Amino acid sequence: MIFYVNALYSISKELMIPLKQAFSCLMLVCLMAALALPAAASGYRVDPKRIYANDGTNDFWWSHTRCATLPGQGQDSAPVILCTASKDLNDNHSDVFFDIAYTISSDLGDSWTPYTVIPQYNWRMLPNGYMGMLIDPVPVYHAASGKILLLGMAQSYDANYAKKQTYPAYAVYDPTTGAWSADWQLFDWPQVFGHAGSSYPYIDERTGKVLWPIHSISGSGALQVVTASFDGTSLTYESISGTVSNTGSHGNRSGIEASLTEFGGEYFLTSRDDTNNRLAKSANGIVWQPAVDLQWEDGTPVSGSMNTQMHWITRPDGLYLVYTRQDAVNSDVFRYRSPLWMAEVNPVTLKLKKETERNVMPNTTDRAQLGNFGTLNVTPELSIVTSNEWKSLQPNSTIVSRIWWNQSLLGSWPLNETAGTTATDTSGAGHDGSITGAVPGAEGRFGAALSFAKAGDHINLGHPADGSFDFGATQDFSVSAWVKTSHTGSIQYIVNKGDTNGSFWLRFEADGALRFLLDYGSTFDYVKSPASFADGKWHHVVGAADRDAGLRLYVDGALVAQSSTMLGGSISSALPLTIGTDSALTLKGLIAEVKLYNYVLDEFEVLGLGGVVGSWSFDEPTAGSGIVTANDVSDYEYGMLLNGAARSPAGKSGGAVQLSGSRQFVKLGDPDSGAYDFGTDRDFSLTAWFKTDVSGTSGYIVNKGDTNASYALRIESNGTIRFWLDYGSTADAVQSAQAYADGKWHHIAAVADRDTGLKLYVDGILVGENTSLLGGDISNKLSLTVGHNSPSTPNGLIDEVQLYRYALTEEEAVEIAQR
């Protein structure tokens, strides 16, 4: 899931695991989505993905993943990101951890090394006479020494794993040798005991001092900041601040897991509390103002933000807090510990700016908690939030949300107006356009579209003073649009900015081919489709400009042309960005959903913009029962193989899901975005490859919902295929006359046009149609599944399941079946 937020807010390459290999399935740039905008003042892009998933054979889980940077040691002198995690053996004991492992990325999070256990870090006898282990560690880079400090606490346990005293503790990583210190050490300080787990320190780069928040007195809420020096080997106590006054419940978790940062010359501290999480600040890090409850700027409490840690992301132009809270989407999540939210904090009042709040790590498929998390500024353009899915052995995964502050959606124009002369920019950037000549209200791919019919029909989107529509000689960008025309014989501009002195444009050529071009004046670069798309059908077109690697042109999700070399030059121009053009070369047809980005869209984002809600190929390299493996295009949403469902290598294309018994199914989740729900009037389509030679019992191929509200694709007991929409007391359905339980692969396409009816295609042939719909609501809060958690499970193979947010045409159903 890649989504956007309006922010009114010397590692061996052989060890790397490319994410697109580890998570080889496809899916959504989730509908939750597509909000966006440029850099810190007006928006940022959030890209959450899984970098590890339990393979179904592990009898443990990784947790508490947190990270540090090593400046200049990665690819192209980028920072290396090093993350540590703790091992929980899932033996029903709370907060009992064993190994510590680490993983490294040298390409800003695109790929990661496998978790590597640090073998010398083990349980040992502590001064209180109990065995214990370094737990809840936080790695931080210490610039003065060039080392990474791993700060946490040594938790002691009795023979029954009951928790006893804790000691602040630490370890050291030397990036020059790639070695960890011989053992973890206790921090020698006057109060001896202290809760320092999951606490983020502040490293003063001017002095090299370590300011470390420690909860020093169990059960009283006493939180203090220790100042220590570090010589590259040992951490030495120097002084301690006054106590941060905490008016909370003073329960056993009050004042723990603090996070410290500096912003604008002041220090800011988070404090976990049993009833209300709190924030505090100090002018010098020594004397602290009393901690205050987490509130919105209007003085209302941030409901449900309690008993869970909070951490900072500090930007040059803003102080941001990542936290959890109660919301309509997480009533079923333990302590509301998912999703993770982020908002800007007013540094004067310590209150959150509600209008800046965004979801930076969404709920997972299995509604697991994400509350033990970490934050890190990697570069001025990139911050990350890290966590582990924490619910059971399956799933257990490590999630990294990358926050790209400089990547955003510059403008989004649905062109779905039904009247008027204004094309509204829904991105939040405020770049509304002025419509000249073009007629609103035409039937579009997703609602209304704008009709262009005569010379000069166009939309003027202006030339923003901030230059956000100009990309100079080096700035990457992408432009996306839905278009429909049957006209040939003349050039037709879809999107254009500039002239022959400097410009970029996306257009139809006279022969109907599509061209994406960057014009520098005397030279230019372009890519052109080999085929004509002026065929009277809707097409999704994307031009992506990577100013180093070349241009790409996508049509309907497929890469149809690309260049690998660039002449290069500036394309900036004072002329306005236009949809269509104010000349005779305007498009004669329909345009909808135009978007402009200041970065290169990848193939998965292109697929999502083209209307594919989910696509599951089941080609993951790992086989086995119970594996978290049916991942989607986002590298975030995924499928859980449950009750014996397994991956088979004998798919239609690569792997497939093998269902062979009652209640076997793949759980695909129910995104908070509602991406898999289609209400009372939204069109959609569902496709899949299916193979069985077993008849006599019915079985769900794909299903979402129950008898109160659902949609489903099923093979009946006589081998026929049925697609239906269930509204509770009524339903609409369409069914094939022929049976297909013949041991052969068959492609099924089920199409729901909520106005004209249901259609069912098998192997590209229309085998059933229902044009008289009763209608009703099919949205529900149940998971989308392949197979079903009931006796109605098919016996066979299922592959290449896809869900679309529009009604496929007959031509499209045929084309998909013939791929």
Automatic annotation (TrEMBL):
Signal peptide: 1-41
PROSITE patterns: LAM_G_DOMAIN
Keyword Signal: yes
Gene3D superfamilies named among the record's database cross-references: 2.120.10.10, 2.60.120.200
Protein's UniProt keywords contain Signal: yes
Keywords of this entry: Disulfide bond, Signal
SUPFAM superfamilies, A to Z: Concanavalin A-like lectins/glucanases, Sialidases
Domain of life: Bacteria
Residue span, Laminin G domain: 655-819
Name of the protein: LamG domain-containing protein
Species this protein is from: Paenibacillus lutimineralis
